[in-house]
Amino acid sequence: MATTTGSRRRRPTPRPSSPRPWPTSAAASAILDKEKDDEDAKNGPKDNRPLFKTVDERRESALKKFRDVETRFPGTGAAILARLSEARSSSMAVSPILPSWPSTT
């Protein structure tokens, strides 16, 4: 039976001196995140909310829709809430929420 006089060590593998030809995990995840964001922007939900130039246009559109609900569903809870909302919107057009404060001068 042969005995060994010493343990054999493995030689360390040399590291390449040039940078890796493939992206690191952080760079790869950044690339994938950017691609996913671009895909979501193309296929994601669209913003279908109406845009109004002035507050008065917005208020008039809301009042028209409140009146439509009142005529289509009379006597229901939706009609009552529409009527209350219409009254609130109409009163806000007349007076602002905060009163004008007297000047201290």
Description:
This protein has a domain at 55-92. The protein is an all-alpha fold and 105 residues long. The chain is 52% helix and 0% strand. The radius of gyration is 35 Å and the shape is rod-shaped. It has helices spanning 25-43, 55-72, 77-94. The termini are far apart.
> Structural class of the secondary elements?
mainly alpha
Oligomer kind: single chain
Residue share in helices? 40-55%
User: What coarse outline follows from CA principal-axis ratios?
Assistant: rod-shaped
User: Please, what is the average pLDDT?
Assistant: 75
**C-alpha end-to-end distance:** 111 Å
In total, the number of strands is: 0
Order of helices and strands: HHH
Number of DSSP helical runs: 3
Main beta-sheet strand count, sense and barrel state: none
- Uncertain regions spanning at least 5 consecutive residues: none
Compute the gyration radius: what is it? 35 Å
Task: Bin the strand percentage.
Answer: under 5%
Which key terms come to mind for this protein?
105 residues; single chain; 3 helices; 0% strand; rod-shaped; mainly alpha
Q: Which helices and strands, and how do they pair?
A:
Blueprint: H1 25-43, H2 55-72, H3 77-94
Helix pairs in contact: 2-3
In short:
By secondary structure, the protein is an all-alpha fold. The protein has helices at 25-43, 55-72, 77-94. It has a domain at 55-92.
